[in-house]
Amino acid sequence: MVPLRRPRRLSAQVIRIAAGEKTREIKELVVKKAETKIVLGAGSSVTLFLTVPKRTRGKRSIDVTLGKAAELFLLLIQEQSAGLQIEERISVGAEASFHAFNVSLGGAEQTLVSHVKGVDGRSTIDWIARTSGREEASIAATNIFSSALGKGDITIRGTAEDHSRLRVTGRIDVEKRGGGTEARLDQNILLLDATAKADAVPILRIETDDVKAGHAASVTKVSPEDLFYLGTRGIKKAEARRMLIRGFLHALLIHVEDPGLRERVAAGLDRRD
Known about the structure:
By secondary structure, this protein is mainly β. It has one domain. It contains 3 helices and 17 strands. The protein has a 9-stranded parallel β-sheet, covered by helices on one side. The chain has an 8-stranded parallel β-sheet with strand order 2-4-6-8-10-12-14-16, with no helix packed on it. It is globular. The chain starts with a strand and ends with a helix.
């Protein structure tokens, strides 16, 4: 992987991908400053891997702009127990394609708002969240379509263990000029303990009739019978829990095309065991 060059003596980290630049190399960035700005020129294509250092406190904002026909896969991993707020704001131009894959491990507060402003723009948001102990986490993902023929799905999977709390909000806004938009929202949370709490909040705001949109939300509890069944197969309780979590969360990793990135995400998830 190729480390990005970062400008010096600036209050914000600024990343610019030149118009027409297409690279298969994955560019990495550690989010250290309060503001990060990412700008993709028209027709450019890149994969970015962002990480937030542990023990980061305060607020971090990430602003992304995609020019016409630009393509971005943005992977963001944060492992923070408390005291961190992350805001991601995305602007998607005409014929551009944005794909976010967020991994939130811990008790931070995190929001992502992707605004598809150009005709035939696409915004896909995949999100994995995991809490344990007494962590309290809140994540929120929004797709806004203000031009015609937009497309985009939001898929969120989360697990809550012990005495932790997880709140998941998903939202789709299709404005009056968003005719022909196709959008989907899916939120699924798995509770591993009776003392864990979770909320899945779906919001759809549709201002035009020419739309294909749908949503599903569920909060499912792992029952003692589920663990007992695995126990009858010779699987110990701790291992059974790990198997349930892996099977539930790792299903989303199919959307990470690069094998190396996929392995790193899987390793981060497994470190929570």
